[in-house]
Amino acid sequence: MNPSADPSEVDTASWRGQDLRLIPAAATAWLGTLSGLLGGWWITMLCGGAAAVLAIIAGVRAHRTASRWVAGLGALAVLGVLTAGPVALRIRAAEQDDLRAAAARGSDAIVRVVVTERPRPVRGAGYADRRAGTRLVVIAATVDAVVAEERAVDSDGRILLLAPAEGWTDLLPGQQVTASGRLAPAKGAELTVAVLSVRGPPSALGQAPWWQRAAETLRAGLRELCAVLPEEQAGLVPGLVVGDTSALAPRVEREFTDSGMSHLMAVSGGNVAIVCGSILLLLRALRIGPRTSAAVAAAGLAGFVVLAGPAPSVLRAGVMGAVGLLALALGRRGSALPALGLAVALLVVADPAMAADFGFALSVLATAGLVLLAPRWAEWLAGRGVPSGYAQGLAVPVAAFVMTAPVIAGMAGSVSLVSIVTNVLAAPVVAPATVFGVLATVIGPWWPSAGRSLVRLAEPEASWLITVARHGARAPGAVVEWPGGWWGGLLAACLLAVLLVVIRLRHARILLAIVLAGGLLVFVPVRVLAPTWPPASWSAVACDVGQGDAVVLATAEPGRAVLVDTGPEPGPVDDCLRRLGVDRVPLIVLSHLHADHIGGLESVFEGRSVGAVAVGPGRAPAWAWQQVAKETARRGIPLLELSIGQRLEWPGLSLDVLGPRYVTRRSVLEQDGTVINNGSVVLRAGTPAGRVLLTGDVELAAQADLLAEGIDLRAEILKVPHHGSRYTAPDFLNAVTPRAALVSVGAGNPYGHPNKSTLDNLAAVGASIARTDTDGDTAVVTDARGLALQRRGEPRGPPRS
């Protein structure tokens, strides 16, 4: 390629030299099936039939002219017939399955099913006495028999089980099991005919096939080997190697998503390329012929697919890899695009539900980007003096981003602007981490010490990936909100198309560069060099940590603040403190030991000096107390108990302990959730902005006790008890008479917080209300006009309702 060629040549040239004959056939199978899943089986039949007829007519004309498209038109005719026939009939069978009617009525049912995929964990943040973690699993299965409404239902369709994690997590593909529960309709665009909310443990368990049992033994062995690593790395390595995220820390999972790196933990074409490529390189070094090499690599590929499990992305990657190896064995190099087309066609015909699977679409589009765009873009960069390795390292993530961005934008309702940079930084270590992990998985059962050594070799790579993801997620503007759904995806696709057209024109490129440079000069200084957050005179901040509490109280010393509660999970409170520039925390007060108040404790310690952790007299729930005691002891941080009447002071800040008074007359070991809430530590903070009353989750009984003691509860700012629940007495609010009320609450929470009557009562006493679910981090500040509330990203202004 001419080094001085115009960038517009990249897009056009990327199609040259590629065999496109299978693309119409693959597109017919995919789009025809997707149309049927969205609109009805008859659409699939019409699309397939029309494609077959057109292919036959065009094929006759092409045969007369000896066109090279004859084979492609033949494939199109075959795929058209398969789409109009078997695929359409399978969609029709799913649409008319008898189990759909029972699901629509919400009937109770007993089903005997065969598991088709490994259970997928559904993680949740902690709340009240429930620990954060996996409480439910989703299990894909096919129906063997159903009894609903006391009669047998004729069905052999697909079903999803929403089951408790306990007892259901360890099921394997191919295993038969009986479950009971309540049916619910499945969402559209799937072959799934019903969802069963399972009650109780599984029964009548059958045995999984031997190869699935062997694969699970190897996966469990890898998890055990990774126990020698730090917690975050130990959870990440199995995810990188075989897509096993069961032990992945929620914070790491969130950071990988925000930084655009979550695809690294889903087994796909990249893993297959690494595994097969390593085998082929080894065999090439041993001077083994291409056909034998392809056969050995195919055996390794089959083993890896079984090891990773039959998820859609794994099957697509496996079929793609198998077709590519077949091309290698036949001596047809450079046939990646036909291999992709054949893989798409085979998978959609074999499993029509894949046509509507977002993961399948992302995988196919990313692979297409690597085949069509990345090589030419890398060549274009190399022609301008960029070293070959760096050129490929840049071209690959950019090509994948361009191809997948519209789908991601529409699916997630957001776009990660740092994903290109993070993936460029991550790329060099993914392959060695995967190779070391696979070797440890295979060797570990026979030679544990060697397996542990290999896992330790993967630790630096895993640590680097976590570091990249963490810093990427923290970058200003790392994630940009975007319209969700089809319109959002189309808007992103149109924007990318406009950009590709613009870079074709030299003058337009210059104009685009000027606009981007101007934007950087305007927005970077505003957002980074002179940020609007935090406000200069903040006294207290209610952090947006989801459905939980975390309030930061400033001292007169910059960077030093007291923290009351830590939210439901690691990460959000750490982000809030980082945004506020807090690196010294003389005291962390845990108002009580419910999960949504202690879950983020661990992340507060990272990169900060902490003087002590203080609690009230409560020691329930027991697991939470043990967790706090263990974490503080491990870090050598004193664990203190606060007492009523105690006063704590720092420059510019004082804390008076007003409660709990309720718990002194009841057992501190009692496990009842209401008793634990009423045992919350109640503090009155003296700040330059006025008095702040911090109430934890006190409910009616504890509020009544405070009122009965005749304590002066007046405060300018109230941290509303229990996330604004209905258990807040009007008399209590009248006694406080706050000017501003901070409601720490999670968006879309299932508890009905904050309650409308509580908000109405706050408004009645004249309080301006700020909610973290709608306003984000909210600061209490003072200015020339006195007390004010400033929402993150908003200009400073008076309190608002």
TrEMBL record:
Predominant location: membrane
Entry keyword annotation includes DNA damage: no
CDD domains the UniProt entry points to: ComA-like_MBL-fold
Keyword set, alphabetical order: Cell membrane, Membrane, Transmembrane, Transmembrane helix
Pfam families (alphabetical): Competence (PF03772), DUF4131 (PF13567), Lactamase_B (PF00753)
Record's keyword annotation contains Cell membrane: yes
Signal peptide: none
Membrane topology listed for this record: Multi-pass membrane protein
Entry GO terms, CC: plasma membrane
Compartments where located: Cell membrane
Membrane-spanning segments: 40-62, 69-89, 264-283, 295-315, 335-353, 360-378, 390-412, 424-447, 484-503, 510-530
Highest taxon of source: Bacteria
Domain (Metallo-beta-lactamase) ranges: 547-747
Family annotation (PANTHER family): DNA INTERNALIZATION/COMPETENCE PROTEIN COMEC/REC2, RECOMBINATION PROTEIN 2
Protein name per the record: Competence protein ComEC
Source organism (scientific name): Amycolatopsis orientalis (Nocardia orientalis)
